[in-house]
Amino acid sequence: MLEFILRSFGEGIPGTLFCHDLDQRIRFFNDAFASQYLRLTGRVPQLGEPTVDFLPDPELRAEIEKYRRRAAAGEPVTAEYTLRSGESVEIWEVRYQPVRDDQGQVIGILAWGQDVTAQKQERAFLQRLEVILAQMQDAVLVTEAWPIDAAEGGPRILYVNEAFERMTGYTRAEVIGQTPRILQGPRTRREELDRLRAALEQWQPVRVELVNYRKDGREFLVDISISPVRDPTGKVVCWVAIQRDVTQEKAMVAILQDALEERQVLLQEVHHRVKNNFQTIISLLELQAVHLEQPGFDRLLHDMASRIRAMALIHEQLYQQSDFSHVLLDELCASLAAHMQQVTAAASVRVEVQPGQVALPLNVAVPVALIVHELLLNAFKHGIPAGAHHIAVQFRRTADAVTIEVIDDGRHHPPDLPAQLEGSRHFGVRIVRLLARQLHGRVDFMPEPGRFCAALTFPLGPDGEPASTPPGYG
């Protein structure tokens, strides 16, 4: 009966269990021990046989013998062994318990062994993880998965790293078992807390920004990323929160934002003043033109004032927008067309500018504005006498270039008008040639039945910056 009870007990516990007398002869073993014995020796253990020789490694046998002698002397002993079989390595923990008779004399040893390889590996991994977390600059906080409600006392903090202690002023001992709510205060936004709670209730990761409070009551702004940790079955076992103090970062962003707004105001004022200065120059030229007696000089000054007005329109557009680095081409051409209608008093001519989202950098916008000004002036100057009633400004955009076409519907242009313009030494045409060369572009004059087209083509990359000069450009 006693042997039956002992065997039933041995089969019910995890790991190997066997007993030997002081002569090291086996008196009892369970099935787990038999399987391990068979794996190591290639044969089944037998009651009564000695155990000293069943391990092939002499160093391991000597180590086991050392612990057995201590157990035989009446000392309970726990030992740890490394077993190697082929390429596999196992770590076993064996507990030796002296077996005594009715007089208290040791008559044998009961040994219980467990494979602790997985536990050792997990413990080593956790130790390495602890080292990593301790060295992180961001605070790490681990809480239990449930409960979430404060009324139920959760979720309680299970772990914090050293960065958390530095950030909050709390020690690990002070926060373990508490909830993260100890960090919240009057200015912690309820909306962010509600969003956080909703994500936790759905077992979803979440990122929030909260005002938290240090142990001494000082506020700090923290960016928190919370993720669920799941076991192999998919069940959430805890929450891990990575917390980064963004107080100084946000303060710096605010300073930079203020500086940017001040810069925008300053640039806006600069463009406003430049526009006004241009207007002053225009007024002076027009005033001088009124008092000139030399024939033709008044026209020259009016033309010069008109060109200055073309440049002033760029700064007027910049003054009215928030982006001071680029000018929208269609808006610039629309302003130039309206200005040209005004200075030429050609109200009967309908001018149409095609919409288009082409942005020009400032170093390109100025020469483009002057060229378009001259092409529009040419359309009004030659198109109206040729019977034009409509002038159109159109754009074509490719990957590396922009084409601007100024087209009038005059039907009676001289057949040799392109040649006249190409060979002209008129100041306006010379400006067009020089500025087109500056843009690495070209200007083409193309008569067609029932209309005349002047086209400026220049390189411009997809990012709105001047592109490298394509083949065929100046």
From TrEMBL:
CDD domains linked: PAS
Keyword annotations: ATP-binding, Kinase, Nucleotide-binding, Phosphoprotein, Transferase, Virulence
InterPro entries the UniProt entry points to: HATPase_C_sf, HATPase_dom, PAC, PAS, PAS-assoc_C, PAS-like_dom_sf, PAS_4, Sig_transdc_His_kin_sub2_dim/P
Pfam families: HATPase_c, HisKA_2, PAS_4, PAS_9
Gene Ontology MF term list: ATP binding; protein histidine kinase activity
Boundaries of every PAS domain copy: 151-203
Residue ranges occupied by any PAC domain in the UniProt entry: 75-128, 204-258
Catalysis performed (reactions): ATP + protein L-histidine = ADP + protein N-phospho-L-histidine
Enzyme Commission identifier(s): 2.7.13.3
Protein name (record): histidine kinase
Organism: Chloracidobacterium thermophilum (strain B)
